[in-house]
Amino acid sequence: MSTRQIVELLPRPEGRLAYTVTGTGPLVVAVPGMGDLRSTYRDLVPPLVEAGYRVAVLDLRGHGDSDTTFRTHGDVATGQDLLALVEHLGGPAVLVGNSMGAGAAAWAAAEAPDAVAGLVLLGPFLRDPATGAAKAAASRLLYRVALARPWGAAAWAGFYSMLTKGRRAPWHADHVAAIRASMRKPGRLRSFRDLALTLTHAPVEARLPEVDAPAIAFMGSLDPDFADQGAELAWIQEVVGAQGHLVPGVGHYPQHQAPDVVAPATLTFLAGLRADAQGWNARG
């Protein structure tokens, strides 16, 4: 984040999760995608806090300042972690998620609708890519090799930059260096590798018909993770009734590649929820 914050720890059955909280008002909880850090939201948190929201940002299991003792990873585990943090901080909350974090947020909205006032989905994975079994097996083999020591941290740093296609934040190089340094700490590359090898979004897709929370989705027009970004965004709009924004000239991380687009649209979305959802508005 742009200013030094106190890192707090949320106890979970297999370890502790690191998070920070800034501001006062209705609760917003954000989580990154795999292989990323809380600082991915450094340009989104300040305008939300200034607008009167209490913003918590969570590190994934085995990532950043969270423990590496977790044996279970993935969308469902992350969704459970989001709901645990909402309960701990006093919800309901709007959940913000990038990549697999978006899938986890959608799962949480289906699992506990009273705890989730809305969804902000960034470069969202709400279903598995439409690839054959052979290609999926090849991808798992690639992860197994690429994320091994001693080169795994450097390999992921390079891939992260590839996913950040298009315009970049002025602090992009520092962020990638921080990711690489974090991955070199004991246990973190192993945790990330375990997540990458087992990750599936099928449990999220199965629960999407149960998602009633208002949602807004941002998809980068250059996102390398999707063969047809517009078509994927249209599907997300249809299946969860989300407002959709195809963000030109950015890749997989709209939150820091295009904060000038994401922040104003998110604030407008939140203001609408705040006017309509008095239960959410009254908290904080």
UniProtKB/TrEMBL annotation:
Descriptive protein name: Alpha/beta hydrolase
Xref: SUPFAM superfamilies: alpha/beta-Hydrolases
Annotated Gene3D superfamilies: alpha/beta hydrolase
Species for this entry: Oerskovia rustica
Domain named AB hydrolase-1: residues: 28-264
InterPro entries: AB_hydrolase_1, AB_hydrolase_fold, Epox_hydrolase-like
GO molecular function: hydrolase activity
Entry keyword set: Hydrolase
Keyword rRNA processing attached: no
Top-level taxon: Bacteria
Parts of the chain that traverse the membrane: none
The keyword Hydrolase belongs to this UniProt entry's keyword annotation: yes
